[in-house]
Design brief:
The protein has eight helices and no strands. It is elongated, with a radius of gyration of 20 Å. It starts with 12 loop residues before the first helix and ends in an 18-residue tail after the last helix. The protein is an all-alpha fold. It has one domain (13-143): Tetracycline Repressor, domain 2 (Orthogonal Bundle). The longest helix is centred in the first third of the chain and has 23 residues, at 13-35.
Length: 161
């Protein structure tokens, strides 16, 4: 007996979440957190509002997920640094990556900037938890370098050399 595969008419969870995230990023970046509504996000994603709540939990959870996603994108460039990394290359790659990501994800960048300008009310937990731990791990790597090594902090310039 031959089994014929029939394509599913139900999109995968990943596709639905991607659709929601893309729509939400646009709506939040255009209207801010307060001005955005789940109904507008649902309409833009082509889904019922109930699906937004089912997949994301709440408006706040969706918003925080977008902010965290943008931070992870930016921080990935520093994941592989070691005490032997060339500081000029690391700094150059970090700046270049932030510029490219700003162009590739303008809505996410705008969303993050607006959150920071508002005092980061929705990022407090992330800033005090995950990001703080991540920054501490990067600082520990830099502290492993010899005192007069490549990762010397210039107090005048405020940059790593």
């Amino acid at each position: 007996m031959t089994v014929v595969s029939v394509p599913s008419e139900n999109p995968s969870r990943e596709k639905i979440e991607t659709s929601i995230l893309m729509a939400a990023e646009q709506v939040f970046s255009q209207h801010g957190y307060r001005g955005a509504s789940l109904q507008v996000i649902a309409d833009r994603a082509g889904l019922p509002k109930a699906n937004i709540l089912y997949y994301m939990g709440s408006k706040q959870a969706l918003y925080v997920r977008l902010l965290n996603r943008m931070m992870r994108r930016w921080n990935e460039v520093l994941e592989d640094i070691t005490p032997d990394s060339d500081p000029a290359t690391v700094l150059s790659d970090f700046i270049r990556t932030k510029m490219v990501l700003g162009q590739r994800y303008p809505e996410g960048s705008k969303l993050f900037a607006a959150e920071i300008l508002a005092g980061a009310p929705f990022l407090t937990e992330y800033l005090r938890g995950e990001l703080r731990d991540w920054v501490a791990s990067r600082a520990a790597i830099i502290r492993q370098c010899p005192p007069r090594g490549k990762w010397m902090l210039s107090t005048r310039a405020g940059l790593f050399f």
